[in-house]
Amino acid sequence: MKRRIFLKSIPASLLASSYWTTACQAENGINPADKTVVVIGAGIAGLAAAKKLQEAGFKVSVLEAQDKVGGRVRTNRSLGIPFDEGASWIHGIDGNPITALAQEAGMTTFQTLDESMKSYDIGGALRKTSTYDSAEDEFYNILGSMMKRGSNDQSFASVFNRLYPEKQNDRLWKFFLSTYVTFDTGDLDKLSSTLYNEGEEYGGVEKIATNGYDTLATYLAKNLSISLNQRVSAIDYRTSAIQITHNNTVTQADFVIVTVPLGVLKNNKLLFTPNLPAAKQTAIQKIGMNCVNKFLLTWNTTFWDDVQYISYTPEVRDKFNYFVNLNKFIPSAHALMTFAYADYGRATETMTDAQVTTEIMAHLKDMYGTSIPAPTRLLRTRWSTNENAFGAYSYTAVGTEMRHFEDLSEEIDNKLFFAGEHTEADYFSTAHGAYLSGIREADKIIALL
């Protein structure tokens, strides 16, 4: 699946650092074993930080609100097929820290090919490959230059519609805007017209997890002290001993790393005493939080094309317009995964399973005929109303400045630290960004000794 294909790749050497330290012998004689660290959140960022700090000799404990580790890395296996509710792909395997981590963790992967695709218009009209490719080339040319004609106070949608009014109602262009922009960033009417292409990407092929992305979380969590179902409500950092309130219990720590998603911070689910610095509060407000919901459907038989991806171009943008064929990497799965983005993604969270299935099947019937069978099962996500996330991942909204990501990563008084994909200016919105942020904050604490 293409992700920020128009961005420059950066060499892995720019990120060179060891993943783990073995034992930390402080030059000033302070023993890390005498220092306690509480990590809030057992997502990829929190687990990466906790693992590195524990291996450096610190006393580390992790508090997780959910009943399992992983955060937004969640895999549902209830249908016998690993359904990754959050992260699914390693986006560019060259130099990506997730590549090596996946190998260590035993995560199996499959290289997905963007070229293995068929595109259908309404009425089941199969689109010519040349038509699709030509429009796609033009689309990426526009993405590569449009930011020069935008402004800080204008959204992507407003600038695009002004510059290319003839494309507003073109169904193929709606598909590109939805699947190649909204999916990777956020709502087009809120997305910055100057920063929509910010961030970096790794080179190399794209690989999707075939036995569950949560294998990474399980691996990182080994031998860590993790308390599940512990919802942190308050952090008091007025004194040297930080007070963390969770489930009506107070735990003290010398250092705290907050790794909760940006959506949780936006919804003021953590009470900080004193209040967070103004710059950090502004960053929380200004950076956007996207909604991408995923849907897995299974059948007793396969009726669709033997390709990796099936695109459909309905009149309504962001609505079940992209299908991933799981049969390509899980033989005989008889399963498709599809998506809903932005406002339509949020709207699905108020819909019943039957309503969602009807809407998805309407698109499939238009492509493959009304006689196709009904699905046997449906799995789905509701990320915008999930109290542990309130969204899928961060993006550069109108009003966002790139320094806001750095403001979110700033530690306070060398005792309160922040990690998560929303704190990585180069790799926000990605699992590898979350991982790198955890390593970064662990390194900060180690450097203090």
UniProtKB/TrEMBL annotation:
Keywords: Auxin biosynthesis, Signal. One of its GO terms (biological process) is auxin biosynthetic process. Pathway: Plant hormone metabolism; auxin biosynthesis. The keyword Signal applies. SUPFAM superfamilies: FAD-linked reductases, C-terminal domain, FAD/NAD(P)-binding domain. InterPro entries: Amino_oxidase, FAD/NAD-bd_sf, Flavin_monoamine_oxidase, Rhodanese-like_dom. One of its GO terms (molecular function) is tryptophan 2-monooxygenase activity. Residues 26-74 form the Rhodanese domain. PANTHER family: FLAVIN MONOAMINE OXIDASE, LYSINE-SPECIFIC HISTONE DEMETHYLASE 2. This is Tryptophan 2-monooxygenase. The lineage of its organism: Bacteria, Pseudomonadati, Bacteroidota, Cytophagia, Cytophagales.
